[in-house]
Amino acid sequence: MAHDWKGKRVLVTGGTGFIGSFLVEALLERGAIVRVPIRTQNYRSLSGRRGEIEWLEGDLRDSAYCSELTDRVDEVFHLASCRRNVEYHQKKSSDVVNENVRMTLALLDGLQERGSIPVTFFSTANVPPTFDTIALAQEEKLDGYVLGKALCETLWFAAAHQRRFPLLILRPVGVYGPRDTFNEESNVIPSLMLKTRDAEKQLDVWGTGEQERAFLYVEDLIHAALALIDAGAKHIQYVTSGEVVTVRRLAEGIRDLVRPDLPIVYDPSKPIGNRTIPILPMHPVLSSLPWTSLSEGLSRTYRWWNRI
Description:
There is one protein chain. By secondary structure, the chain is of the alpha/beta class. It has two domains: 9-172, NAD(P)-binding Rossmann-like Domain (Rossmann fold); 177-214 and 242-308, UDP-galactose 4-epimerase, domain 1 (Alpha-Beta Complex), CATH 3.90.25. The protein is 38% helix and 18% strand. The protein is built from ten helices and twelve strands. The protein has helices spanning 18-29, 63-69, 86-91, 93-110, 133-137, 144-163, 188-198, 218-230, 247-258, 294-307, and strands at residues 9-13, 33-38, 54-57, 75-78, 119-122, 167-172, 174-176, 203-206, 212-217, 235-239, 244-246, 264-267. It is globular.
């Protein structure tokens, strides 16, 4: 049964961000009253719809602000996070963990007296189906973003167990698409687009190119999240289209869009991360969703980036 959003007040943290802005738009289309926290008056991708949204200025690390933010709310989506690229997450691992955990703790404080409000927390598929938090924290190349998400999941589960509110944890694979950040701290796809555009003689790619990767077009994630809520899904849900590609295919696809004649040189001496993508458990409702192919998603992303 489809979830009735009409007239429901929904809080979306991170609502001005890459993924959050698409979620806000989808909820508005379904008749929800959407509240979005903001630290400065920069409405970003939602500038054109700013008059349709409840804005509340403040700091998500502040429990008192989060208490005000959650007042009279019927549902919560928590997407706000400290997120850059893997290099930054490793270099500033403790800072990234602290920022993400502080926001979750403040939001939990704000929800303390709010009763059984459903919460959807956006995590990452880089948290494996079975994981040891201590083992993650002791890895030589500690990714503060992954560890922070894992710790936040633990906090949400503990609170839901004690307070008995419905909890959905989403673990999507690498999300990409229009409105993503294109700079030196970008994720894989925008970073490769930038490198391809700015390369002098060739596109240098780490590894052999045979490493496998999985990506998810941003609007597909929003459709999947709302479909899971419609289906009454709870607990941890992975989200992936099931399409797995090699880094070689990804690099060639981006090169063909941005600079078709640019040579690609692979450097197997550089770190390559995991070589293969694990098979992820998926909720049955996701099997019937239409997914955007990587080639189509890259094309849409490039067209958006090329016109800004």
